Amino acid sequence: MLEQLVPGVRTLTADDLDVGVQAAAAASHASSSPDTPDIPADHPMIQEITRLAKISGGVILSGPPGTSKSFFAAAAAQVMTGGDKRRYRFVQFHASYQYEDFMLGFRPKDEGGFAYKEGPFLKLVLDADTDPDNTYVLVIDELSRADVGRVFGEALTYVERTKRELPFTIANGNEIKVPSNFVILATMNPFDRGVDEVDAAFERRFAKVTMDPDKDLLDEILTDNGMDDALKNRVLGWFSRINGLANRNAAAAVGHAYFSTASDEASLKDIWDYQLRYVVQRAFRRDQNTRADLETAWNHIFVLPEPQTPESSETPPPEPGATT
To answer: Collapsing DSSP states into helix, strand and coil, what is residue 100?
Structure first.
């Protein structure tokens, strides 16, 4: 429309100016809400992750969906590497992810035949070994979605802090070591099916940080989004209610990040229609009464309370001409 009114005009989007969502996603980890502001290096969570990484060599952020696990892992990786993209990588585990993807595997060559191809773990370990004065970070999303013993292979033993710098042999016969300046930051949902195996593999190798739904952080998010205080308080009340039920039904946990775009009633209705209603249905599929109560409580977020007329304790004045 603007081009028709002003011939030859050039319109620019936020991404054209390197300040939009796409630009931010290219600079950081796309699963971590790339349009959100950067987290400062002195943020308490970033400082804690960094401290634990120095002690353990690896940190697992564990919590239900929507608790900012990937966001903080990505932010910590960037802080620990000074934002040097050569020194951090991202991987997402899934059911079919294997040693050949992570460490070392065969890949077809254009001219025929096969050749070894280094996976993200091996690449970063080798890079870190040649640059001992700098920190290298591998971020693994959804750690519990894969068979971690199979994916890590022989390296599983040597990611432990006390085994760093010890040489070991990988599948192609080469000898490598996991250097002390190599850090793994991982995220996982504690209710995934593979969690027991992950706990057994990493319980004494990595530190674990629990990421719970945070009411105070949600309050901050909604305030920053400009939500009306009365509406915000009703949302916070519902948030506390459903997460209180998570003590006996873990699937009911709702993270604060679900509300990252909430600013008014219209945005809240979208969040319910396309996300939260399915969380509630799945968590309480065998408890229809609780499910109905939560849905009713959500609908009450949008119902303004009836104005209360204070009762006066004073006796009304007598009508004109009335006798006392």
So the answer is: helix
CB 23 within 8 A of CB 15: yes
Q: What is the pLDDT of residues 22-63, one digit of tens each?
A: 544 444 554 445 455 677 888 999 999 999 999 998 999 999
| pTM of the predicted protein model | 0.80
The whole-number average pLDDT for the span 148-163 is 93
Check whether 237 has a pLDDT greater than 60: yes
Can you say how many angstroms the Cα of residue 108 is from the centroid of all Cα atoms in its chain? 35
- Residue 151: which residues within 8 A CB-CB, separation 6 or more? 93, 97, 98, 99, 101, 102, 103
Domains of the chain: which residue ranges?
A: 13-210, 215-300
Q: Which CATH class is domain 13-210?
A: alpha beta
The rounded distance, in Å, linking the Cα atoms of 205 and 225 is 40
Look-up of token digits 């948030």: 239
Measured in Å, how far apart are the chain's first and last C-alpha atoms? 78
Calculate the alpha carbon distances from 132 to 179, 180, 272 in Å.
8, 8, 49
* SS3 (DSSP) at 259: helix
Interatomic CA distance for residues 296 and 289, integer angstroms: 11
Contact indicator for 85, 137 with CB cutoff of 8 Å: no
